[in-house]
Amino acid sequence: MAIQLTDVAATRVQEFLKGRGKGIGLRLGVKTTGCSGMAYVIEFVDEIQDDDSVFESKGVKVVVDAKSLIFIDGTEVDFAKEGLNEGFQFRNPNAKDECGCGESFTV
Predict the structure, then answer these.
(1) What is the SS3 string spanning the chain?
(2) What is the model's pTM?
(3) Looking at residues 54-80, what average pLDDT do you find?
(4) CATH code of the domain in which 49 resides
(5) How many domains does the chain have?
(6) Residue 75 lies in domain
(7) d(Cα 54, Cα 64) in Å, to the nearest integer?
(8) Strand order in the sheet with 76-82
(9) What's the pLDDT score for residue 34?
(10) I need a surface site. Which of 12, 30, 82, 106 has the fewest CB within 10 A?
(11) What pLDDT does 77 receive?
């Protein structure tokens, strides 16, 4: 499996990277927190680490560390704007339950 970006998410990441002026892609990971146990972490990548897996989706490099990959393998990342709010959304086939806000999940 792999991490995939929708067209909208890929375009948004490319815009962020261009505006930032540096970076090789997007890092997606998880941390223990939130009301459901695990939360997504998303940040720019300037350097790939030895234990990282690198996926290419719609022209964007998506980097995931080995510890996070087992929880998010197969996830599709989208970017949506709803009213005044905008942000990344995750469709994770490994998630058994999510909190109401979609920020955290359990596996």
Answers:
(1) CCCEECHHHHHHHHHHHHHHCCCCEEEEEEEEECCCEEEEEEEEECCCCCCEEEEEECCEEEEEEHHHHHHHCCCEEEEEEECCEEEEEEECCCCCEECCCCCEEEC
(2) 0.84
(3) 94
(4) 2.60.300.12
(5) 1
(6) 4-96
(7) 7
(8) 4-5, 76-82, 85-91
(9) 58
(10) 82
(11) 95
Residue 94 zone, left/alpha/beta (φ > 0; ψ -120 to 50; rest): alpha
pLDDT band at 83 (very low <50, low <70, confident <90, very high): confident
Place of tokens 């375009």: 11
Spatial strand order of the sheet with 37-45 comes to: 52-57, 60-65, 25-33, 37-45, 104-106, 97-98
Weakest mean pLDDT among 10-14, 15-19, 54-58, 81-85: 81-85
The length of the chain is: 107
Q: What pLDDT was estimated at residue 35? A: 64
